[in-house]
Design a protein that fits this description.
Helix content: 10-25%
Radius of gyration: 18 Å
Number of strands: 4
Strand order of the largest sheet: 1-2
Number of helices: 4
Distance between the termini: 51 Å
Largest sheet: 2 strands, parallel
Order of helices and strands: EHEHHEEH
Structural class: mainly alpha
Amino acid sequence: GVQTCALPIYDFRGMNNIELLNQLERDFKNIKEGEKITLDSKVFIPLYSSLVRSGKEINKYLRKIDLSNIDFYNLSVIGVDFNGTNAKINPQMVLLKSLYKTNLEGMDLSSYSFEDVDIRYANLKNTNANIVLRQLKILSVAGANLIGTNIDFDDIKYIDIEKTIFDEKDTLKVKELIK
């Protein structure tokens, strides 16, 4: 279940990243596996921004926060691992429309547009995302995991697919692209 828990209001700007992570370790250690705390956006956004800037593995914190009502509008999700969280990430709303190196595995993205979005090296496995390749920000899906997505290959003559993992159903279309 979702446990409501008030974290202390930190002045994140005054804390260095090590102090912040140490404080979170202390505050989050009592949250049992499978439980989530609810944070107000006013608390979550500076916390999230500080965690992202820390460059550390932040998934273990994100998994313990109820992200279902958090709006990621204009926040960077580049390189963030959301696997196992209940976040709802709209690719149109995040900073720079970039999912570069973002792990969204298992998140339902079927209702979102990927127009002008960068999905290079993103893990979109089992997201049911509807991706129209010609509408992407960059004609590249290099390094992306696209298993369990729906890809529209129409009007594509060339696209960078280096190290991309495609669904079995897309194999023939991919072979046509590289011939």
